[in-house]
Design goal:
The complex is a heterodimer of chains A (281) and B (253). Chain A has 281 residues and is an alpha/beta fold. Chain A is 40% helix and 22% strand. Chain A is built from 12 helices and 10 strands. In chain A, strands 6-7-8-3-9-10 form a 6-stranded mixed beta sheet, sandwiched between helices. Chain A has a 4-stranded antiparallel beta sheet with strand order 2-1-4-5. With 253 residues, chain B is an all-alpha fold. Chain B has 2 domains: 155 residues, no CATH class; 80 residues, no CATH class. The chains are: A alpha/beta (281), B mainly alpha (253).
Chain lengths: 281, 253
């Protein structure tokens, strides 16, 4: 479980707080989507969850952040990393090896995973990410989507209880983006891994995440179940966040008094709504 | 895009050597060029390098390295040849410049040494996985992992920076900058301003790598943490013996 209690952070030299009084509880097994416009503080929140803030990036830090009971201000990032794995935006930048297998091995060796267990973990992580055939390939030869999966496999091999991903589909086409989210869903549902994912593709978040959190200028302005958060679509739009078109359509139909059902989150639900109101797609 | 120093997968004799032996062999071949004053020995070392490259299936790459080094060597040769004033004058030139037999011999040796010393390191990197170098230094020589990792990262970053630079140059070419000029000085003038974006992107990449390593337990690693073993085989002793013979020849002649 992750608990943020009135968490705030201002980078040294910056005028405003990147995180401003955030209180949030992320339960075990959650799949939380984090969304907000540029500069809302999403990446800084990921840094805070991993302990990089305040240990690596200095600044004014206040409040409390507990990851599985570990206070992030007191525990070093490598201690937090035993339970929480991170995949950041810049995929090329976070690669530490030249070959896929070595990239996966890096964390396992560092954390002193027993030798007899390592082979199984590498094979399992590669299979879970669907990249077993890439094991001996040079990372420089891989596409953006494949690198993304390598980064995810390098983290899942460590079997953390929580995985935090900062825009994991930023450089991916729609099909690859979907595959990444399907991998995350599998980790969440089959292995019970808690997923916190920052993403700008709202349709994907609405389809895969169980809960949604919206940030604006360092503050957490909305948080709850996806459908519940989408009820405040106006507030989301004011914060510079897109909402799914089917949801916009549903709101318009509601305003016209044509639809009174629950908000659709994806195309299938949108189609169902259209049939309910007597319109064909 | 494959860089000139990127690892080339394979199962040749060179590929199968212990990484530490490959490293030692490269240094022995480099050292052989500097302990001898015999042009033919140095030429022999270059030929040996090419033969090893051929056996490892990277002959084309070795020739490419040689050709790149030759361009630099030609420039150094021209500078060097006019600095040595001793010996019998072979060619008198205007402005008080002249070429002597000693100058010619020394410059030639200088250039051959440069070629022969640079090639083994390039070949060694081409047949060794980057991560094997720090790992073997930690496991076999007891070097602290942090230092070995820095060395491995520095090697890994050479082709990455080259790719980064190529990317920046492509972006500038798309904006109309013509880098394919034949004028050396104009090319340098065009490339110099690109050092700033290269530096910025490199620092960013290094910082990303450092954070990523830290979050995967970099500071927890001990000497015995490594997964891979690097046992010595008979071929390793054979290769070392071969290297020792080359060094002995260089010392004797």
């Amino acid at each position: 479980m992750i608990e943020l209690k009135n968490l705030g952070f201002r980078y040294s030299g910056a005028e405003r707080h990147a995180l401003d009084g955030i209180s949030l509880t992320i339960e075990d097994g959650a799949f939380l989507g984090l969304i907000g416009s540029s500069g809302a503080g999403k990446s800084t929140l990921c840094y805070a969850l991993s302990g990089i803030v305040p240990h690596h990036y200095r600044g004014d830090f206040y409040g409390e952040l507990l990851v599985e009971g570990m206070d992030s201000a007191e525990h070093r990032p490598e201690e937090i990393a035993r339970v929480l794995g991170c995949v950041f935006q810049d995929i090329d930048g976070q690669m530490v090896a030249s070959v896929v297998e070595d990239e996966i091995l890096f964390g396992l060796e560092n954390f002193g995973v027993p030798r007899e267990e390592i082979e199984g973990r590498v094979a399992e992580a590669l299979a879970a990410a669907g990249i077993s055939e890439l094991r001996c390939r040079a990372i420089s030869d891989l596409s953006g989507g494949q690198k993304q999966k390598v980064a995810i496999a390098a983290i899942t091999a460590l079997r953390p209880k929580i995985i935090v991903l900062d825009e994991p589909t930023g450089e991916l086409d729609p099909r690859s983006s979907r595959r990444v989210f399907e991998t995350l869903k599998e980790l969440n549902e089959q292995y019970g891994v808690t997923i916190v994912v920052v993403e700008q593709k709202i349709m994907l978040l609405c389809e895969f995440a169980k809960r949604l959190a919206v940030m604006e200028e360092g503050k957490l302005i909305l948080e709850g179940e996806v459908r519940e958060v989408l009820q405040s679509a106006g507030r989301m739009e004011a914060a510079g966040v897109n909402i799914p078109r089917v949801t916009t359509l549903a709101r318009a139909l509601r305003e016209e008094g044509l639809y009174g059902g629950r908000l659709p989150l994806n195309l299938e639900e949108g189609e169902k709504m259209m049939r309910e109101v007597g319109l064909s797609c | 895009m494959k860089g000139i120093l990127d690892y080339v997968p394979g199962s040749s004799f060179l590929h199968r050597l212990n990484p530490l032996v490959k490293l030692l062999l490269a240094f022995v071949l480099c050292a052989s060029c500097f302990v001898t004053g015999n042009h033919f020995i140095v030429l022999g070392v270059i030929a040996l390098n090419l033969a090893l490259a051929f056996s490892a299936g990277i002959f084309g790459r070795a020739l490419k390295m040689l050709s790149s080094l030759l361009k630099l060597s030609a420039l150094l040769f021209l500078v060097q040849i006019f600095f040595v004033r001793e010996g019998q004058i072979l060619l008198q030139l205007p402005l008080g410049l002249y070429i002597t037999d000693l100058g010619l011999s020394f410059s030639l040796l200088f250039v051959l040494r440069l070629l022969a010393a640079a090639l083994p390191l390039g070949l060694m990197l081409s047949v060794t996985q980057t991560s094997d170098i720090p790992n073997v230094l930690v496991r076999k020589l007891g070097l602290p992992y942090q230092y070995a990792f820095v060395l491995g990262t520095a090697i890994r970053f050479i082709p990455l920076f080259a790719q980064e630079m190529a990317g920046i140059m492509e972006a500038q070419t798309a904006r109309g900058v013509e880098f394919d000029t034949k004028n050396f000085f104009k090319k340098v003038a065009l490339l110099l301003p690109l050092c700033a974006p290269l530096l910025v992107s490199s620092v960013r990449r290094i910082e990303g790598g450092a954070i990523s390593a830290e979050l995967r337990g970099f500071y927890l690693r001990g000497r015995k943490s490594g997964y891979k073993d690097y046992p010595f085989a008979l071929r390793d002793f054979g290769a070392l013996l071969g290297g020792a013979c080359v060094l002995a020849l260089a010392v004797l002649f």
